[in-house]
Amino acid sequence: MRALRTSLAVALATLAAHPALAQSADSDLSLSVIGATVLYGAMGILLTLAGYFVFDKVVGLNLHHELVEDQNVAIGIMLAGVFIGCSVVVAAVMLS
What we know:
The protein has about 100 residues and is mostly helical. It has helices at about 1-15, 20, 30-60, 65-70, 75-95. α3 crosses α5 (about 75-95).
């Protein structure tokens, strides 16, 4: 959960630092555009979390125990790759 909050904070900081990323030149920033962005963002986060839970079941490890109690750095790096991979797939699906 903490990693999710951190990634959301990084995304919001990026958009705040570069307002051109939040809006294209030929569209206006209306309530429907903001609503669609929030909806697609929430869907993307939920689908990425679903990908994590599927990965957790397929691997068969207790990932929470490995990360929190054993502080296994290799598992943390592997999970970062899983989140990035799931996010790329979800973004590609949502853009098509």
